[in-house]
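Hi R.,

As promised on Friday, here is the backbone we talked about, encoded as structure tokens. Could you run it through your design pipeline when you get a chance and send me back a sequence?
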């Protein structure tokens, strides 16, 4: 059994090729988010119990009735596809190395999400909360805050990503309320921690892989996400995402029309003393077609403390993790995984005043 080291401990993976086991999708539950918009107290509590079960047993779920307009998602897929079809020299004009805050383009094989692998077969473009360069947190060298980088002459790309990002912030607020209820907390418990959230939007392009595949070079290597939760849109009709279940088997998380995939990240696992599972996943695009996906990673403010919630501690379950700020945690994970990130962080620390 192969063991993957994550920042919160080791996870076991069975070997045996790159094909996920096909199970009916109700193994990854679908949760109706409507009660968070229009429901009464009883409907919200019912949803909270379903969410708690999904986060405890699977760590992955689909959400429907999320209230993000379909055309916002479609337009973003459209601009992403057009952007990635540009020649390499155009895309390299906005390479992440030109940003102090890791915003912009990263090319095929530049990232290696599973450090035991040989590079991820995807290219990406990252934006996050647009914080001006003269903001005190940016000047203090908190590398996760900063201004976005935008390609010249592509206003439609910028508009689509900014609109999508704003929709994700709204949806994350709703989801966070549902998470609080699922943890038997006041619905607004986390609100004071997310006024200036870590909120990275990334568009991804995975070229297809044919024939025999080296399992050390796939679309995105096995990993868990670092932040509180991730909201993922996948282009319909193309399967690639796989989720590691408790038995160490890979389960397909194919796109479902009208749904986002939501998964628990490592910050939420720490907050909940591992009650909620930050589940390992990967993507392998053997569909024969180009694949596009749009993850949005949501974590609390840089300075928010991630400290095991009192409700997740008892005599049998003492706190497993010491407190750490949201920013230190995510930054540390990036630095451990991506060399270019460490270089940027060091350069920023040198120039911080
Ligand atoms: O593209 C996908 O389906 C998954 C992407 C992912 O896991 C990530 O970017 O962290
Ligand atoms: Fe991920």
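Update: got your reply. Pasting your designed sequence below so it's all in one thread:
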């Amino acid at each position: 059994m192969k063991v993957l080291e994550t920042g919160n401990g080791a996870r076991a993976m069975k070997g045996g090729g790159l094909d996920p086991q096909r199970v009916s999708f109700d193994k990854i539950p679908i949760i109706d988010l409507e009660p968070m918009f229009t429901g009464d107290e009883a409907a919200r509590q019912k949803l909270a119990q379903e969410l708690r079960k999904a986060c405890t047993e699977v760590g992955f779920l689909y959400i429907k009735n999320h209230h993000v307009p379909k055309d916002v998602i479609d337009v973003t897929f459209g601009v992403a596809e057009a952007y990635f079809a540009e020649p390499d020299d155009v895309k390299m004009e906005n390479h992440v190395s030109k940003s102090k805050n890791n915003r912009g383009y990263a090319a095929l094989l530049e990232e290696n999400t599973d450090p035991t692998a040989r590079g991820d077969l995807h290219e990406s473009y990252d934006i996050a909360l647009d914080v001006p360069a003269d903001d005190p947190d940016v000047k203090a060298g908190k590398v996760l805050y900063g201004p976005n980088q935008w390609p010249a002459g592509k206003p439609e790309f910028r508009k689509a990503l900014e609109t999508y990002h704003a929709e994700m912030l709204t949806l994350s607020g709703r989801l966070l309320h549902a998470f609080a209820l699922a943890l038997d907390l006041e619905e607004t418990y986390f609100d004071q921690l997310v006024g200036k959230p870590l909120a990275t939007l990334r568009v991804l392009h995975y070229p297809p892989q044919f024939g025999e595949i080296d399992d050390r070079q796939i679309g995105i290597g096995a990993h868990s996400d670092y932040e509180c939760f991730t909201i993922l849109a996948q282009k319909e009709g193309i399967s690639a995402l796989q989720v590691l279940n408790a038995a160490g088997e890979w389960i397909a998380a194919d796109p479902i029309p009208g749904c986002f995939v939501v998964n628990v990240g490592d910050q939420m696992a720490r907050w909940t003393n591992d009650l909620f599972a930050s589940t390992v996943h990967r993507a392998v695009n053997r569909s024969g077609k180009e694949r596009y996906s749009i993850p949005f990673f949501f974590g609390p403010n840089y300075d928010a403390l991630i400290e095991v919630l009192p409700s997740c501690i008892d005599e049998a379950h003492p706190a497993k993790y010491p407190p750490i700020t949201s920013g230190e945690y995510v930054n540390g994970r990036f630095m451990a995984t991506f060399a270019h990130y460490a270089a940027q962080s060091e350069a920023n620390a040198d120039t911080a005043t």
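One thing I noticed while checking it: Residues 155-182 form the longest helix (28 residues).

Thanks again,
M.
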